[in-house]
């Protein structure tokens, strides 16, 4: 099978899994967890898994593979840079709101924050993501950043991007498992025990499988050298050169 056909097949699966993950999250928290609110109750907590997985996994993964779409290679890179940055910023915003939801719930119920391995991995992923976005914006979107600095930053940006995705998937899987253990305690809270695999457990486990498969596909796309966007052509630097020329002209006018 042609390499490009394999790419588009994997990319199509990536999009389908993205939709499936979000639907699964909403169905789980709507049908079994009571829905959503923003009042410090359990319903506010339900926003946490939806926003974190949608932001740190689904949007993040789709934003990461944006440059690998061959149809974009024949066009100037700047619009795709801006779209990549916008998707990542939206992903970061959703993640921050998701963190606010869980902290608000914990504080309202006097539950300690950041005591579990899940929370440690999740907060590390979110913090690294924030640093990654700021560094990426400064390094690749500010036109006065030297090209030598961009070349130095690029491999670190790519490596850290994949690492954040892996951390996000680990946090999501551990969070789903933790939630199911807490929610499905059997007779203590009038639910079937997790060990009997009631429908809610099946939905939660299936969501975990969807997230893992989605992550593996994204990492496969990112790790295939054939699907990397070709090195920037002179046209890709038009924006940088144009802005720098304007800055020089303005500086000359002041002299």
TrEMBL record:
Any stretches that span the bilayer, and where are they? Answer: 7-30, 50-70, 82-105, 117-144, 156-176, 202-222
**Quaternary structure and interacting proteins, as annotated:** Homodimer.
Q: What biological function has been recorded for the protein in this entry? A: Transmembrane reductase that uses ascorbate as an electron donor in the cytoplasm and transfers electrons across membranes to reduce iron cations Fe(3+) into Fe(2+) in the lumen of the late endosome and lysosome. Reduced iron can then be extruded from the late endosome and lysosome to the cytoplasm by divalent metal-specific transporters. It is therefore most probably involved in endosomal and lysosomal cellular iron homeostasis.
The UniProt entry, under InterPro entries, shows: CYB561/CYBRD1-like, Cyt_b561/ferric_Rdtase_TM
Q: Where in the cell is it found?
A: Late endosome membrane; Lysosome membrane
- State where it is primarily located: membrane
Highest taxon, organism lineage: Eukaryota
The enzyme's E.C. designation: 7.2.1.3
Domain Cytochrome b561 as annotated: residue spans: 13-223
- Name of the protein in its database record: Lysosomal membrane ascorbate-dependent ferrireductase CYB561A3
- One GO CC annotation, please? lysosomal membrane
| Taxon lineage | Eukaryota, Metazoa, Chordata, Craniata, Vertebrata
Q: Which organism is it from?
A: Oryzias latipes (Japanese rice fish)
**Names of the cofactor(s):** heme b
**Keyword Iron-sulfur among UniProt keywords:** no
Q: What is the recorded membrane topology of this protein?
A: Multi-pass membrane protein
